[in-house]
Amino acid sequence: MDKQRQKPIVLTGLQPTSGIHLGNYLGALQNWVSIQDEADCLFFISNMHAITVPQDPIELRKNTIDCVAVYLACGLDPKRSHIFVQSQVIGHAELAWILSCLTPLGQLERMTQFKDKSGRQAGEFVGAGLLYYPVLMAADILLYNAHLVPVGEDQRQHLELTRDVAEKFNGIHGPLFNIPEPLIRGNCARVMSLQNPTAKMSKSDPNSLATVFLSDSDAQIMKKFRSAVTDSGTEVRASDEKPGIKNLLHILSGVSGRSVAELEMDCAGMGYGKFKTVVAEAVIECVRPIRVRMEALKEELLYLQSVMEEGHADAQARANATLAKVYDHVGFACGKNL
Ligand code: ATP
Ligand code: LTN
Fold it and tell me: Ligand 1 centroid to 234 CA: how many Å?
């Protein structure tokens, strides 16, 4: 076995919908960057998940390629990691079908994200894909026999389902899949909205001041933090009674790498107005170089394509190997097994 394969396998991805935000960066991407030396990493763009809600095909294609640029701009390194697009690899949908036959319908109906998203579309069309989404996510992970899956807190329940279905498959057909562990790190696993600090920061928030995007200008970032909702007090402290201030402290800790306790000491007595400016400035310093790299990389289409091609070739080889074993275990007739 080559050295690379002895490292734990890490797999994760995000959806190529427009606007990667600070929550995605601090809760997910930043952790992916730091794990690249310790693990055999696969990072993909989950365009098959994106179509669980309506997408414009032209936009989806553009967002998919832009997402590769975002990955690289944030520090994912194609020399150390594999970056690929989900729909290019044959096997995700095939494995998802097999796993769906082992997944209890009731467990899918209980998924918080399904309830939230289908609830928001109440009275409108809700595709079965929205319900089925966690099965596809389980297939994404098990197809590569991942050991670790770095995600934000909102994905924990989907990871539990993945573990359940992997155990069920192994129980019926014999041990084939690793049981993957979620990797949910630090204070930024759930970055909250700047306008409603009890709701998660989300790209689909209708309030344009709620979410900081990696594409935002310095001035836009400053404006969003200056208008962040806080309580009426003055004390800069990360307590549950002060969700707005706590969120800002977590964000500051995420972008600066300093502990919340240290920051509370530094910012004591500062007053909320000054504190918000300090947080905004630190976020601007963190986001600006990413934005600049992102804009430059978006012009490098051929390079982005070569990164996707390398990632695809590696991922397809791994997917083929797993799928052959799965087909064998479930009793699908193929070639030599007949
Ligand atoms: P939406 O904003 O529409 O809810 P999303 O940003 O959750 O979508 P994804 O692109 O699927 O959608 O998320 C990618 C990764 O970012 C996941 O690992 C997810 O857990 C993480 N993530 C998303 N929002 C946050 C947040 N507010 N704080 C921390 N991590 C987050
Ligand atoms: N559902 C995830 C994106 C995603 C994912 C995965 C993450 C799709 N498949 C497999 C980790 C592993 C989300 O972030 N909304």
Answer: 30
